[in-house]
Structures are given as C-alpha cells and as structure tokens.
C-alpha cells in the first residue's frame, strides 16, 4: 500500500493520450471543469460577499457568533474524507452534480432565515455541497489533466472562476445599489441561477471515463507527509482571510455590503487577469519557489492587518491577500507530481479533511480572541505563514515519486 511506483515511458504515453480519441465536441472533460468553475462563483461568491453585512444587520452577530458560524461551515470540510465511501455507490462526476445542487439550494434559501439557528442550518447545507464539490473537483482535475498541462489549466480554471465572480459581484452591486433588492431576494436569484446551470450540466454532459481506477478506501502514505502538512497550514491560513479579514472591513472600517462587493470585484479582476499567468509561472519556477514567495508575502500582509488604521490601506491588503490564493495551486500540482495516479480521489478527500482540522477550530476560538484583541488574531496568522514558509523550503526542485521531500544537508537546496 505504501510502495513507490515510478512513472515509466509507457505510463507517460498513456497520460499524454488522455481523451485524444474523443470526438470533436464541446462536451469535453475540460469544458465540464470550466463550467463548474462558473457555477460555484455565482452561488458561493454571493454568499460570501453578503454574509458579514447580512449577519450584522439582520441577525445582530458578534465576533463570537461569526466564529461559530464559520466553524460550523467548515465541519463538512473536516468530513470530506467520507467522499471515498460515497463513491462506492455513485460516480465522481454524478456526485459532483449532486454537491453543486446542495450548494446552490443552500445559498438560495439563506436569506429566509436571518437568525443564528437558521443561518447555522442553511450554512451547513451549503457548505456540505461546497466541500464535497471542491474535493471532487481536485480529484477529477488531477485525473483528467496531464502533468504538463495541469499548472496552466488549473490557473485557467481560477481565471474563468474569477471572471464569473467578477460578473457576479457586478450584478450584486447593481441589485443592491440600483435595484435596491433585499438580501433574501439577492440570495434567491444567485442560488437559483446556479441551480439551473447545475441541472443543465447534469443533463447535457456524458459520463467521462478515467484512465485509472481510483482507490475506494482511505489512503494515508508516509511519503505524502509534506503535502499533508502544507495542506493543514493552508487551511489555517485561509481562515484568517475568509473569516476575519472581511469581518475587519465591516466592523472596524464600516464597509457596506456594496463596498465589500466592490472589493471582491477588484479581487477577481486581478485573478482574471493574472491567474493563468500565475499557473504558467508555477510551471516555470516550480512549486518550491512559488510557495516561498507566497508565504513571505503573507507574513507581511497579516502583520499589516494587525497594524492598519487606514481603510484604504486595509482594502489594499485585502486585495493582495486574495491574489496570493492563486499561488496555492502549487500545492495541488506538487501532489500530482509525487502521487500514484490511483490515489487522487482518496487523497483529495483526506487532504480536505486535514485542511479543515484547523478550519473547524480556528474560527470559534479566534472569534473569542477577537473580542479582546483583533490584532492578536492577525499576528498569529503571521506565525502560521512562517511555519508554512519553513515547510515549503522542504519541497525538492524536481518533485516526483521517490523524491517527495528535499534530502539535503544544510546549505544544499536538494534535487
């Protein structure tokens, strides 16, 4: 179970020939991935953009309440390893459609339940669909794409998703500022559109076959330890941005829902313009250098959050913070280079669980800390970035099976 399988020329030829024999049609695995990258921003981005204003204005949330809500949101991510058991009964592609439907429905009904209990329930439904979807997307992407095209195409997926988010946030701003729609109307519209597209995908696309049969049991391999560690720290880092950076904008600098929407518009404009180039950058410089650059930048950003007193500087930090997310795809391409092909589905589930161990704990505990010192939350975040930086230095220059971690003496970069 823990044996190392080195790639052979024959395996390389099989990998490069994925889907070559498919007829010329728009119904391809790549287009399927591109379309799902549009659906999620429509639903999830609208949920995130309105959340802080909705919970403060309609449900009178405190920092502790938002921490509890975000911890509950991350519980399905913690349980993402169960995807391998569900796959015993349903194929990955069909399961992804079900997950997208759950996400869309959860968003559509959010506005009807402006209370702590109501938001906990709708968030749990939305989040279960979202996290199962993300697990399956990672698995199918790494199965359907060969290693040479993966960094650039994954960057392209981020870029397409960013464009969808850009259009979504533009529509949100119009609905809030021009049409003066209420929160429940906006949530219903965006969730409903996402649900319609999901149903179309379920009916329009054929079942795509993978060239490698996936393990249907949990896989934990010792040689993947660095990937697991990077994934764990990534989950911790993500909470600082997702939960507390946005909350800082609303609570300290009094940003309105329209203001937050404009911030997200700027974020996704940058992602649309640069995400594909970032994927190409990772393909050129390698995962090690890309992640070192990311974590050095995050240390500065988190310290900036702790010290900032100017709303415009805070907004700049928020945009830069979001842009760094595109570099995180280097962790996925690192896995693709070191992992056995049949491990992709199981490892995706396990990694999402590892990613969410911190995500379940941090929002509620840091939410309590927030009541006493918001700056302390961001200083701890900077410490997490330092740990991630140290871990990323262990990635070899050429990751592959048998060369998963630097085996260097001090002063040597490794191979």
Architecture overview:
With 415 residues, the protein is mainly alpha-helical. The chain has a single domain (27-207, 217-392), classed as Growth Hormone, Chain: A (Up-down Bundle). Helices cover 73% and strands 0% of the residues. The chain has 15 helices and no strands. The model is unreliable at 1-22 and 409-415 (pLDDT under 50).
Descriptive keywords:
415 residues, Growth Hormone, Chain: A, 0% strand, globular, disordered N terminus, disordered C terminus
Topology (elements, then pairings):
Elements: H1 9-16, H2 29-57, H3 63-78, H4 83-86, H5 92-108, H6 116-144, H7 150-178, H8 183-204, H9 225-251, H10 257-285, H11 287-307, H12 311-323, H13 329-338, H14 344-372, H15 374-392
Can I get a quick summary?
With 415 residues, the protein is an all-alpha fold. The protein has 15 helices and no strands.
Largest sheet: none
Could you spell the SSE succession in H and E letters? HHHHHHHHHHHHHHH
Please state the average pLDDT score. 81
Low-confidence stretches: 1-22, 409-415
């Amino acid at each position: 179970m823990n044996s190392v399988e080195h790639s052979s020329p024959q395996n390389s030829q099989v990998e490069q020939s994925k889907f070559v024999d498919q007829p010329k049609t728009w119904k391809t695995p790549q287009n399927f991935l591109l379309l799902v990258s549009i659906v999620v921003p429509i639903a999830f981005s609208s949920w995130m953009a309105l959340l802080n204003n909705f919970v403060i204005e309609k449900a009178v949330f405190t920092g502790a309440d938002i921490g509890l809500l975000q911890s509950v949101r991350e519980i399905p991510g913690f349980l993402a390893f169960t995807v391998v058991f569900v796959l015993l009964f349903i194929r990955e592609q069909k399961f992804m459609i079900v997950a997208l439907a759950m996400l869309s429905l959860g968003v559509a009904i959010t506005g009807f339940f402006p209370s702590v209990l109501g938001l906990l329930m709708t968030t749990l439904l939305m989040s279960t669909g979202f996290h199962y979807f993300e697990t399956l997307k990672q698995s199918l992407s790494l199965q359907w794409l060969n290693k040479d095209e993966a960094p650039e195409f994954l960057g392209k997926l981020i870029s397409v998703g960013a464009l969808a988010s850009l259009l979504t946030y533009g529509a949100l701003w119009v609905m809030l500022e021009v049409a003066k729609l209420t929160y429940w109307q906006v949530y219903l519209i965006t969730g409903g559109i996402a649900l319609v597209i999901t149903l179309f995908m379920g009916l329009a696309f054929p079942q795509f076959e993978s060239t490698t049969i996936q393990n249907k049991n949990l896989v934990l391999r010792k040689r993947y330890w660095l990937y697991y560690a990077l994934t764990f720290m990534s989950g911790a880092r993500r909470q600082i941005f997702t939960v507390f950076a946005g909350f800082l904008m609303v609570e300290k600098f009094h940003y309105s829902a329209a203001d937050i929407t404009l911030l997200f518009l700027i974020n996704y404009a940058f992602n649309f313009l640069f995400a594909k180039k970032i994927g190409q950058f990772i393909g050129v410089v390698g995962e090690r250098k890309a992640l070192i650059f990311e974590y050095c930048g995050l240390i500065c950003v988190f310290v900036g959050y702790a010290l900032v007193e100017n709303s415009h500087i805070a907004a700049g930090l928020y945009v830069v913070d979001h842009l760094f997310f595109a570099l995180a795809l280097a962790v996925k391409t690192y896995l693709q280079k070191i992992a056995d092909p049949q491990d992709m589905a199981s490892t995706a589930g396990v990694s999402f669980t590892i990613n969410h161990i911190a995500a379940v704990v941090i929002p509620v505990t840091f939410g309590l800390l927030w009541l006493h010192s918001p700056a302390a939350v961001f200083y701890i975040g900077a410490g997490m970035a330092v740990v991630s930086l140290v871990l990323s230095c262990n990635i070899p220059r050429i990751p592959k099976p048998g060369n998963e971690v630097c085996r260097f003496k001090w002063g040597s970069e490794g191979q």
